[in-house]
Task: structure prediction
Amino acid sequence: MRIISGKYKSRQLISPGKDDRVRPTTDRAKESLFNLIINFFEPEGSKVIDMFCGSGSIGLEFISRGADRCIFIDKNIIAVSKNVRALAVEDKCLIVKHCCLDYIRYPITTDLIFADPPYNYEDLNELITLASAQNCYFILEHSGDLVLVNEIKEKIIKEKKIGITNFTFFDFRINQEN
Result:
C-alpha cells in the first residue's frame, strides 16, 4: 500500500493488519477513485474527512495532493497514527478515535467526506442519511448495489465499480453549482 501521487508519491504505508474485516483500498482502486475525484473536486486547499480510515490511505492521498486538513475517524487508530507520523504531516491531520456514526450526527465543516465502512456494515443507510445533512461531497466505498430512497438517489453524481469495490459519489452541498 502506497501513496499514488503528489508530494508523498510512492511512500509506503502500513496496513491495519491481517484482520479479515480489514480490506484496505487497493492501489488500482485508489488510482481510479482519484482520477474520478479530480473531475469535480480540487483537493488543493480542501478540508476532508476519512471515515472508517483504517490505515488513513485515502486521507493521506488527499494530503499528498494538497489538502489543507484531514480528519481521520476510526475506532482503531494505530495504523493511521503510525502513517501520519511516518509522513510527518501531524500539523495537517486530526486523528479521532470515535464511532463514525456518532461523529457525523452533528454539523461538520468540511469539503468532502470519504467513508469506507466494513462491507457488512449494518448502519449504511443511517450513515448516508447523516452524511446527506452535511454541506459537502460524500464518497462511499461499498460492496454490491445500494438501495436508496429517491431523495438520496437524486444526489448521486457518479458510480464506479472496480473489481469487487464500488464507489458512489454524492453531492450534498446546499448551494450546488449547475
